[in-house]
Every structure is written in structure tokens, then in C-alpha cells.
Amino acid sequence: MSLRLTGAVAAGKAVAHASRLLRLGGGTVLPGRVARWVFPPVLERLAASLEQVVVVSGTNGKTTTARLLARMLESGGIPAVHNRAGANLQAGLVASLLLASDVRGRPRCRAGVFEVDEATLPTVADALRPGVVVLTNLFRDQLDRYAELERVAEGWGWALGRLPSTLVCYNADDPQVADVAQAARRRLAFGIEDSSAGRTTLEEAADVRHCYRCGVAYRYEVVFLSHAGHYACPSCEWGRPTPEVRAERVRIQGTSGFEAELAWGAERLALRSRLPGLYNVYNVLAAAAAARCLGLSGDVVRQATESVAPAFGRGERLAWGGVSLQILLVKNPAGFNEVLRLVVPEKPRALLVAIHDRTADGRDVSWLWDVEFEQLCGLDAHITLSGIRAEEVALRLKYAGWPEDKTTVEKDLVRALRRARESTPPGEVLFCLPTYTAMLELRRILARAGAVAPFWED
Amino acid sequence: MDLHLVHLYPDLLNLYGDRGNLVALRERAQRRGISVRVTQVRLIDPLPPDADLFLLGGGEDRQQVLVAQALHRWGEALRSAVARGAVVLAVCGGYQLLGHLYRAADGRELAGLGLLDVVTEHPGHGARRLVGNVVATCTLPEVGSLVGFENHGGRTRLGAQARPLARVRVGYGNNGEDGTEGAWAGTVFGTYLHGPVLPKNPRFADFLLALALRPRYGPVSLEPLDDRWEQAAHVAAAARAGVRLG
């Protein structure tokens, strides 16, 4: 028992308490910062009391995958500490752990499920000593922070090399993830087998991936999203590893969910989920693969999957001022294109796109030019544009051929939300597509209006 | 009038929104009744002999090595296109490859095409990357202010034959030291303002269009377009760098 550990825990808890009393926010990060200041190795010491730690990392799908997995563990009788509010840097991990610990720094749960920022993974791998690491995907995202994807992948490779007994569940369909996962001694691949759920061409030249072994462009038999699909190098032997955990018979049901069959060896599991889109098939697949590694039964996986509603801002639906709203977070071209692919077939009449360029969103908005806004053309819809970089989106839409008279630019999010609501015909859904901090702001506005619960209570 | 735009190696050099430049040039030409042909050139393709304007984007180190090899294979074709007046706009990684030399973070040296009298050195992965919003004043009086985002490890230095494209007001530019941003010589332009530099710098886009049309059509004056959103995005980008533009 360390005095400094208890001191750090006490300080962190006090900050969290004060933060809530003063209504400063969820207290998902600051308590962790304070605790680390009091006692730098606090993360390692708190995590050491957990019997099982699972870490989820990757560009997209971290929050939802970790949430699914935490629910699966809970259904299986193993409640887990979980940074569910999505604070996935060191301080956020510490905060979630100390809030789930008693005053002496002993976690009240046996297990922990943590989503970890992809660039942060190498810096926390030693402290967390995870038994299972889940790697979802690597897409171009926030390059102002991560510099280049290859640097992130190198960091992962280094971290996996330091975790020789860790089981790595990885996405076989993402060539870069599959390549880096080979650095792990124990690994298990997951992937989508049903080719009818994908397309035959890459949507963007930028998504082309070249063999990490010999440099030749991969040949794709099917593409599911961005550069994830069934690929093989035409020059060397390397190609998509055959996944042990597979999604078959995938049926996407618009923005309301999907059905799929999960296969593991000879075992088959029919699943239904309320999470929309192909990207959520990957999230369920990733969580299920990890759950099976942890010894959870198929029944538990199925029940938990069916019970999970979209995480905050990730397709959640709510009612506000007589309109139904669906919030779909957009962070990067891959995610934004998938969201458009989901929303467009619903023939939306009203959309709100809110683009901020704060640090957590990525300060560089260049990525908007890789989003296929051309998909929207032909819709009978009004688009309200908001956020700090609303003008850049207006310009992008103009160059995509979207008519200017069907666009309103209103940088202030409160006013934009009102305008967007006015533009929504009765009985129609207002689709809100915000970047990360715009999503948090949007939810705060809606929380004040009584439409959603604050995110830390989510 | 017609215009042939060539996007070089979009499968390798399109790190962040580079196709925005292509879209801006195409749209701005088409709105003036100029018919536009676009060719995407992949690694194994030869360069089209009749291109008016080449775009070269940015990529990660690994991709840059592959492109450097291709550029050497087709370097003569590009050089002779430039000699007959074709325009080249190269961004970030592409800009580095148009210089004499790029020394990568691991010390490996890539010989460039030497179309611009510049040399680039990456001081290593430990060194600070030059990242952030940029506001600069273009040395071409027709263009005025330039806004954009830079994100590069390499430091570029200009030789006597290259002129800076702009003087930095906010941001790092070529190397974070001498206040220069980008380079140009004749009809070849390089810049660190990556990805979609042309949509929100419409005067630069029009300058390049007119320059590309010149060899076949002589001096052309492009009719003004409704640039309300271009201007708004330009001003908003500058505002994020703390600069208030009229």
C-alpha cells in the first residue's frame, strides 16, 4: 500500500467530485491529470489490481467496440472498469480507473476494458499489461497529430513486441493492421467473409494500399470500407490472413442496424444489432472475437450485442422540439463516407453538418476534400452548415455540385440547430453529422433542452 | 478552349485532400466554358505527351520512394513538357521530389528531378514537425494572400535559381527559419500548403489556369467567377491562424 497512491486517488476523486458539483463537465479527464501529477505511476499501480485488461485501439470504432465488449463481460458476470465516455488518452484512463476504485486505490472490478488512442497505445502498453489487445483499423485521420499512419503502425509494432504473452485480435481486412499484427506472438484474426456486403472497387485513389512487403499495389477482390476488404499482393505471397472469427450473411438495415451470422470454427451464431452500417459489423466482430478469447459463451455475445444501442453521437436517435434527430459522428474520410452511404438511401430531407477544427477534431480540415459529398447530389434536402469551418464545407459542397440555394451557413451551433429543425418537414428525421467536439457541443445544447442525458451519465 | 489536366500518382500521393486541387482547377475552367480532360497517371503509365498542367500531391515516406523511382523513369518526359510551357504544381512530398535531393528521416537520400533549385532535409523523427495553419503573402502580385495548412518534417532550402512562392506571415513555411514558403521557377511551382490549396486560394488557381492555357492560346483573361464561398473559406482559414483579412 502506497501513501502516494492513496493520495493520488483521493486527489483525483476530490477533483471529480468538485467538477460535478460545479457542473464543469463529466470529470472524465481532469481527475486523471491531477492524480498523475500527485503520483506519476498511478496508471500502472491501479491497473495492476485488475486480473484481466483488454485494450481496444484503432482509428475508427474504438468507443463502440469497447462498449460492446464491456457489455458482453458484464452479461457474462464479469463487470469491468471502462472509460465509456471515450476519454482515451493517459489521463482519461487514469480517471476511469480511480473513479472505479475504493479510497485505497483498489478497483471494484476484476476486469478493465479500455479504448486507447492509437498514438497513445505504445505509451500505456507497459502500464496496462493487457491480456488482450483489439486492433480495429488504421485510416487517415488527424494527420496534424499523428503525422503519418506509418508512424502509428510502427508504434503499435513496438508495443506488441513488448507484450509477448498478449493475445492480439486484429482486423484481417485492413492490410496495414494485419501486417503490424504479425509482430505479435499470439494473434487471432477477424474479418467479413460475405462479399455481397462490399463493392468491387476502391472509392478513392488515396485508399490504395501497397504491399508492405514488396511495394506492389494490392489487388482487391472486394472492398468493404475505405481500404478494408479482401486483398492480395499480385507479386509476393502476402495477402489477407484467413480470419478465425468471421461475419457471414451480412444484411445492413439502413440506419437502424444489421443482421449477420458470426462464425468461429464450426460454430455459428445469428446476431442482430441496432448499430448501423458496415463499420459496426466490424465493431461487433472485434468485440465478439475478444469475448470468445476471454471465454464468454455465444449466448452472452448474442444477448449483449442485441442490447447495445448506439454510443453517444454514434448513430443515437432522440426527439427534440417535435423533430426526431439522429446524430452520426464524422471524424475522417473513411467514417464520413460510410455515414453518407448509410444516410443517402434514407432519402433525408434535412441535414446538419457541423465541422470544428479543434485539437480533438484535427486542426487540418483538408480531409473534407476526400469526403464524397457528390453522393448527396440529387437529394431533395436542405443542408445546414455549421461549426468553426462551416465555410470550408460550403465550398466543398459547391465544388461537389450541390446547389447553393439548398444550403444555409450558420456558424453558431445553437442557431444552426434551430434553422435545421425549421428546415425539417414534419415526420422527417434531421440527420446531424458533427465532428467530435461539435458533437459534444451539440449534445450539450440538446441536454440543456432536455433532449439527451449528459454524456458522462450515458 | 480545352485543357488537359494530369494528376500524377493519385494512388500514392494523395495524403490529405489533394484531389481538391484537381476539382478546383476543373470546375473553374469548366465554368468559363473551357472543356477539361483529366488523366490520372498511375505508377506504370507513361506521361501523356499533351498535358497542359500536372498536379503532384503529398505522400508518406514509403510512397515517396515509389514515386521517386517513377519520376526518374518519366523525368525526361516531364522535363520536356515543362520546356514547352506545361505547368506543374507540386504539394508537400511532391514539392520535395521536384528539388535536387530529399534526405529522409532515416538518412536515406532520394534524388529529385531538379526542376526546382531546392534541397530538402528531414532532420529525423525526433525533430519537431512543422504543423499548423499558414497565412502567407504570395510573391506573385496577381495572387495576393495564400492560406492553408502545412504538415511536414522536411526542411527545404532554396538555391539561387528558385524564388520563394510566398513570404510567411503565420506558420513555418519551407524550413521555419527564413520566412519563405514554397518555390517557383518558370512554370513549376512547389508549396507546403498541402491538400486543397487551390479551392480556397482562387486567385492562385486562376493564375495557374491562365499560365497553363498560355502556350496554346496566348495570354488569356479569365472572366471573374462568383467567389463568395471561396473568399469566405479563405478569410476563415486566415482567421484560424489569427490573421484578419479584409
List the helices and strands and how they pair.
The complex is a heterodimer of chains A (458) and B (246).
Chain A: H1 3-21, H2 30-38, H3 42-47, E1 52-57, H4 62-75, E2 80-82, H5 90-99, E3 111-115, H6 121-128, E4 132-135, H7 143-146, H8 149-161, E5 167-171, H9 175-181, E6 186-192, E7 219-225, E8 228-232, E9 245-252, E10 258-264, E11 267-273, H10 278-293, H11 298-307, E12 314-320, E13 323-328, H12 333-343, E14 350-354, E15 382-386, H13 390-400, E16 407-409, H14 413-422, E17 429-434, H15 436-448
Parallel strand pairs in A: 1-3, 1-4, 2-3, 4-5, 5-6, 6-9, 13-17, 14-15, 14-17, 15-16
Antiparallel strand pairs in A: 7-8, 9-10, 10-11, 12-13
Helix pairs in contact in A: 1-2, 2-5, 4-10, 4-11, 6-8, 8-9
Chain B: E1 2-8, H1 19-30, E2 35-41, E3 53-56, H2 61-83, E4 87-91, H3 93-98, E5 101-103, E6 109-111, E7 118-121, E8 130-138, E9 145-152, E10 155-158, E11 166-170, E12 180-181, E13 183-185, E14 188-191, H4 202-217, H5 228-240
Parallel strand pairs in B: 1-2, 1-3, 3-4, 4-14, 5-7
Antiparallel strand pairs in B: 5-6, 7-10, 8-9, 8-11, 11-12, 13-14
Folded structure, characterized:
The complex is a heterodimer of chains A (458) and B (246). By secondary structure, chain A is α/β, with parallel strands linked by helices. Chain A has 15 helices and 17 strands. In chain A, helix 2 (30-38) crosses helix 5 (90-99) and helix 8 packs parallel to helix 9. The longest helix of chain A is centred in the N-terminal third of the chain and has 19 residues, at 3-21. Chain B has helices spanning 19-30, 61-83, 93-98, 202-217, 228-240; strands at 2-8, 35-41, 53-56, 87-91, 101-103, 109-111, 118-121, 130-138, 145-152, 155-158, 166-170, 180-181, 183-185, 188-191. In chain B, the strands form three sheets. Chain B has a six-stranded mixed β-sheet with strand order 2-1-3-4-14-13. Chain B is globular. The A-B interface holds A 140, 143-144, 147-151, 204-206, 208, 210, 215, 217, 357, 363-370, 388-392, 394-396, 398-399, 404, 409 and B 10-12, 14-20, 23-24, 27, 40, 43, 60-63, 66, 125, 129, 131-133, 149, 151, 153, 194-196, 199-200, 229-230, 232-233, 235-237, 240.
